[in-house]
Design goal:
Layout lengths: L10 H19 L4 H7 L6 H8 L8 H11 L14
Helix pairs in contact: 2-3
Length: 87
C-alpha cells in the first residue's frame, strides 16, 4: 500500500484536467456541441461542460456527470480517465 503523504499536491488537479481533455476529445470526435451535451445530461446551460473541460477555477466533472456523459456518448466511462491513473 502506498503512503498518501507521497501523493503530489498536483495529482488530483492534473487528473481532473486530463479527464476534462478526454471528455472534450470524445465529445468532439462524436460531433456533439458543449450545449447539446450539457442538455443531454440534464443541464440548461453550457457552463458545466465548458468549465469542467478546461478545469477552470477547479470546476470539474463529478462521477455522476461522467456516468451520464459516458451513457449519452455511448463510451465506456474508463475512456475519460488518464491511462496512467491505474498505475
Amino acid at each position: 500500500m502506498k503512503d498518501i503523504l507521497n501523493l503530489s499536491e498536483d495529482y488530483i488537479d492534473e487528473m481532473y484536467k486530463e479527464i476534462g481533455k478526454n471528455v472534450k476529445k470524445i465529445r468532439t470526435e462524436k460531433g456533439v456541441s458543449q450545449l447539446k451535451l450539457a442538455q443531454a445530461i440534464g443541464h440548461k446551460s453550457v457552463s458545466i461542460v465548458s468549465l469542467a473541460e478546461i478545469c477552470h477555477n477547479k470546476q470539474h466533472f463529478n462521477i455522476e456527470h461522467l456516468a451520464k456523459i459516458a451513457y449519452v456518448l455511448d463510451v465506456n466511462i474508463c475512456e475519460f480517465f488518464p491511462k496512467n491513473f491505474y498505475d
